[in-house]
C-alpha cells in the first residue's frame, strides 16, 4: 500500500464535468485483473448494462443514481458503490450538474484467490458509506497514473474481498463444493482464444464434468457464465483494437463478432454506450 502523509489520503479533487453533455473517461494504469477508471457524465445516461467484474467505486462529485436489482439507488459524494458481476444496472446523474466517480473493475478470479475457492460473496445493498471502506482503496484510486505492482494488486484485492465479505448476503449458491481447478481450466481455455467457438463438448472434455455442472460451477466461481466470459474477452480485444485506431467494423471481425452491428449490441450491453461514444469519451491518462 502507498504510504499516506500525516494528513491522510490525498484529497480527491472536485471533477469539472465535461460540457455541455456527454461522457468523459480517463483510463488509469492497471495490472492483470484490475482496471482503474475515472469518469464523468452530464446529461446522457448509461443504458442498462452489466460487467463480468466486480465494480467498486466512489462518487467524487454530484449525485450518481442507478437502478439495481429492482430499486433506484443514489450514491452521494464520498459514498461507495459495489456491483456484483453480471448484475444489470444503468447510470445517470441525479441533478443537471452531472456526476463524477473513480472505480476499480476487479476480476472475480482474484477474489477467488483471496477467498480460497469459496463461492463469490454477493452484496445486495450496493451503496456503502466511506467509514466501511479501507482508506488504502482511496489512495489507490487517487493515483490512477501510477503503476501497480503485484504486491499492491494483492492489497487492493484483499481489501475489496474483505469489504465484500463484510457486506455479503447469505450465499445464493448453496454449499455444493466447487471444482475450482476445473473451472480455471475452462476460464484459461476461453481467455486464450476468445474468438474461437468453444462448444459445450470441449468444456466437458477439459473438466470431466457435464455441461450443466460446468455452467453452474463457473457462475458460482466467477460470477458469470462461460459464454458471457468469452464475449467479454472479445470486447476487451475490440476495445484495444479501437484504441489503436482500427475501424469498428475491422475490430468487430478481428475480435470474433459477426459484424459491426453485433459488436455494437454487445458493447452497449456491457458498457452502456456504443463503441463510437466510448472511443470519443476516452482521454489520455
From TrEMBL:
Chain coiled-coil ranges: none
PROSITE patterns: HTH_ARAC_FAMILY_2 (PS01124)
Bias kind Basic and acidic residues: ranges: 1-12
A GO molecular-function descriptor: sequence-specific DNA binding
Pfam families: AraC_binding, HTH_18
Domain HTH araC/xylS-type: 184-281
Ranges for region Disordered: 1-28
The keyword Transmembrane is annotated on this UniProt entry: no
Name by which UniProt lists this protein: AraC-like DNA-binding protein
Species for this entry: Actinomadura viridis
